[in-house]
Amino acid sequence: MKPSIPKGTRDFSPVEMSRRNYIFDTIRSVFGLFGYRQIETPSMENLSTLMGKYGEEGDKLLFKIQNSGDYMNGLTDEELLSRNSLKLASKFCEKGLRYDLTVPFARFVVMHREELQFPFKRFQIQPVWRADRPQKGRYREFYQCDADVVGSDSLLYEIELVQMIDMVFSKFGVRVAIKLNNRKILAGIAESIGQADKMVDITVAIDKLDKIGLDGVNAELAEKGLPQDAIDKLQPIIKLEGSNSQKLDVIAKVLEGSGTGQKGVEECRFILAGAEKLGLQNRLELDLTLARGLNYYTGAIFEVKALDVEIGSISGGGRYDNLTGIFGMPGVSGVGISFGADRIYDVLNQLDLYPKETAGGVKVLFMNLGQEESAFSLKLVTELRRAGVAAELYPDEAKMKKQMSYANAGNVPYVAIVGSNELQEGKVTLKNMESGEQSLVDASELKDFIK
Amino acid sequence: MKPSIPKGTRDFSPVEMSRRNYIFDTIRSVFGLFGYRQIETPSMENLSTLMGKYGEEGDKLLFKIQNSGDYMNGLTDEELLSRNSLKLASKFCEKGLRYDLTVPFARFVVMHREELQFPFKRFQIQPVWRADRPQKGRYREFYQCDADVVGSDSLLYEIELVQMIDMVFSKFGVRVAIKLNNRKILAGIAESIGQADKMVDITVAIDKLDKIGLDGVNAELAEKGLPQDAIDKLQPIIKLEGSNSQKLDVIAKVLEGSGTGQKGVEECRFILAGAEKLGLQNRLELDLTLARGLNYYTGAIFEVKALDVEIGSISGGGRYDNLTGIFGMPGVSGVGISFGADRIYDVLNQLDLYPKETAGGVKVLFMNLGQEESAFSLKLVTELRRAGVAAELYPDEAKMKKQMSYANAGNVPYVAIVGSNELQEGKVTLKNMESGEQSLVDASELKDFIK
C-alpha cells in the first residue's frame, strides 16, 4: 500500500514550515503592535452556524462531518431511497469544518458578548477548509490571517488597518499598492445616474477599461441595460485619472445629488489624509473598480496587489455594518482585513525574500568519534542547549562521510570535532561550514565563540 | 437563534490564547534546541491511512468527512436499506480527521523517504480530533505536541528525550517525576516465569500494589491464571524498592535466564547513567508499572507525573521498532515523546505559574480627548509601534470613564493622556496603571520611558 494524502491538501517540510512560521510570526507581531489580540475557534462548527452564510455555492463547498454512532437512525426508507445527497447530508451530519474565519468570529462575538469589552480587536490565524476543485495555488485546506475590530464605526480603524497592511509588507520587503474603494461611493454613483440596482454591473464593467477600452466598457454597460443618458453621466467616472484628491473631486461632482455618495467621498478623504499624515512606505490609491465583497461590505474596501509579481490580491478587507446580525445581535459595525498566507508564501519565494535564519535547524553538530569522545561532547551539547544554542551530537560512531552528509543536509553552520587529542586537551575543533575555516576552541569558550 | 459550538470543542479567549501560546512556544523552543524540526500534515487524511491503526474502538472514534458531490451514487437499494452505519460510512466518506500525530508522521516519513536525511528528528504541534464522549478535561479537539526521531536505534536519543522533558518542565517551573520503564524488561519478566503471554496482566496487577496491597496483587495474578510458582518468582519484582540501581540489580537477578530481559536492563542502566551524568532538574525513576502503550512500544517507555497537582500523566512516550511498517517501510526504529498541552495548561493554572507578560495586549493606550489631540496622539502611537511598542488610541472622543474602563479591561500598563496643555507643550501625561503614578513626559522621550 502506497500512502497518499487527500487531493488539495499538503504536507509541510521543515524548510517550508520555517518559512510559513516567518510569515505567520511577522503578521502576528504587527497585529499585536496594533493591539489586536488572538482568539481561536473550533475547527468544527455546527452546520446551523455555517449553512446559508456563503451562498448556495458555499453550502456545497462545506466539508461536512458525519455524526458519530448510528447516524442513519430515524430515516424512512423513502428518504434513503430518494438519494437526495444534499438533503440527507443534513440528516447524516450536524457539524462542518470552518469555511472562513469571519462567520465563526461573528458567532464568537455573539456567544461571548457579555465577557467582551467593545470595541473588540481580535486576530485569528487558523486553517479553513473548502471542497473547491483543487488547482494550482488553490487548496482545500489553507490558512487565513484575519484582524477585525467590532463595536465601533470610527474611521480611525480604517487608517489603522491601512497602516497594518503597510507595515506587514514593509517587513516582508514586498512592494505593494494598497487600493481603497468605498461601497457608499459605488452605491452613490449608481443612484445618481438613476441605476441603483446596477451597482455591481457598473463596477465590473469599469474594471475592464484596461482590457477592452472605453468603447468596450460603454458597450458592456449598454448590454447590461443602462440607458444612454446614464452611460453619458458615467464618462467622467470611467475615465477617472490623476491623484487621489483629483479623482475625489471628479467623483464628488458626479455625486452632488447623492447623500450616500457624498458620505463615501468624505470617508475616503479622511482615510487618505490620515494615512498620508502618518506616513506610509507603500502607495495608497483610490480605485473605484474594486468589486471585492460588494454584497457584504458597507463602507471602505481594501485590496492589496504585489507590484513585482504577477499574482492576484494578497490581502484585502473592508467595513461591514451587520456582521453579527445573522446571529441575533444587530447594529454592530466592524472592519477588518485578511492576509492570504499561501499567496504571500509564493510571492516571497519568487522574490527570494526569506531572511537567512528562516532555514532553521541546529547551530552546531558534534561528530561522534567514539564512546569517551561522545560522552564529553554530550556534556558540551547539554551546556550549549542550556545557554540557548541549538546543538546536537551525531547518534552513532558512523563513518565521517555519513556524519558530514547529515550536517550538510541540515545546513548546519558549525561542525564540532572532538577526537582523542581534543578530548585530552579539553578543546574542540570547530569547523565553519560556510568558509571551511577550522578553529581549535577551548571547551569553556565554545558558547561565546558560537554566539 | 442562539449560536453554540459542538460539544467537546472550545473557543479560546485572548487571555487563554496567550497562555496556550506560552506553553506551545516553550515546548517548541526546547524541541528546537535539541535539533528537532517542525513539520505539519493535513488535518484530513485518507480513511485508508487511518482505519485499523487505533483498534476497533479507535475506528469508531474517527471523525469522518462526507464526500463532496453525489456521495450516494452507486449504492444499491439493499445497501442503503441495510442501515449499516459503519459499512455505509466507508462508502459515504473517504477522508477522516487526524486522530493523533503518530500515524500521519509515519505516513509522512514513508511518502517523503527520498527527501529525508535519517536519522530524521521532527516535531509537530497540531490539533487532533476524537469522537470521544466529552467530559471534564477531555475534548473532541485538542492539541498534541510530539517530538520523534526515526531511523536510528541509538539510545542517546532516549537520554536526549529525558533531557527535553526535564528542560520543558524546568522552564515551566513545574516539579515532575519522570518515570522510565522498558518493554524488554516486562517481556523478560513474563518470559522468565514461563508466562510470556501474560505480560500486560502482570504489569497491570503490579501497578495496583499501592491500592490493594501485596495480597491483593497476588490474588489478582492468580485470578488471571498465573500458577503459584510463577507468582512466587514474581515477589521480588512486586516488592521492588530502593534506588534505580538497587532495583535494576534485583531485576537483573530475576532475568538471568532471559536475553531480552537482560537487554532491557542494560538499556535502562545506560539511559539512567547517561541522564544522571548530564544532570537533571527533576527525578528520573525506574517504574516497572508503566503500562502505557505496551502493544506499541518495544523498548524504553516514559511517563511524566506532576508532583504538586493531582492529575494524570502530562507527558509520555517511548521506543517503537516498526512505526512505518504499516505503510510498507519496515525496519525503521523510532523513539518519541508527546506533551499534553491541555493538561499542562490545567497544571500551570492550578499552580499559578504563568509569567506576567503572558497577559499580552498593548503597553500604552492613548485617551481620545478631541480631534487635534487625537491626531497628535496617533502620530505618537505610530512612532511607538514602529519602535516595537504595542500601542493604541481610543477610537472616539468617548467619556473618560468609558475609555478608562476599556484600558482596565485590556490590562493596559500605561495610559497616555494628551489634552490641550500637553498638545501645546508637545508632552504626554503618562499614568502607570499599577502604581497610579503620573509623569509628564516629553513626546520625543516616550519610547525610551516605556521601554
Our Rg estimate of chain A from Cα atoms comes to: 29 Å
* Total of helices of chain A: 18
What is the terminal separation of chain A in angstroms? Answer: 47 Å
Strand content of chain A is 15-25%
Poorly predicted regions of chain A are none
Structural class of chain A: alpha+beta
Spatially, the strands of the biggest sheet of chain A line up as 1-5-6-11-10-9-7-8
Helix residue percentage of chain A: 40-55%
- How many strands, what sense, and barrel or not for the largest sheet of chain A? 8 strands, mixed
Quaternary organisation: homodimer
Assign an overall shape of chain A.
globular
Overall average residue pLDDT of chain A:
93
User: How many distinct beta strands of chain A?
Assistant: 16
Structure characterization notes:
The structure is a homodimer. Chain A is an alpha+beta fold and about 450 residues long. In chain A, about 45% of the residues lie in helices and about 20% in strands. The first copy, chain A, has 18 helices and 16 strands. Chain A has helices spanning about 15-35, 45-50, 55-60, 75-80, 85-90, 100-110, 155-170, 185-190, 200-205, 210-225, 230-240, 245-255, 260-280, 340-350, 370-385, 400-410, 420-425, 445-450, and strands spanning about 35-40, 45, 65, 95, 120-130, 140-150, 175-180, 285, 300-305, 315-320, 335-340, 365, 390-395, 415, 425-430, 440. In chain A, the strands form three sheets. In chain A, strands 1-5-6-11-10-9-7-8 form an eight-stranded mixed beta sheet. Chain A has a five-stranded mixed beta sheet with strand order 13-12-14-15-16. In chain A, a hairpin with an 8-residue loop joins strand 9 (about 300-305) and strand 10. The longest helix of chain A is centred in the first third of the chain and has 20 residues, at about 15-35. Chain A is globular, with a radius of gyration of 29 Å. The model of chain A has no long low-confidence stretch (mean pLDDT about 95). At the A-B interface, helix 1, strand 1, strand 2, strand 3 and helix 4 of A face helix 1, strand 1, strand 2, strand 3 and helix 4 of B.
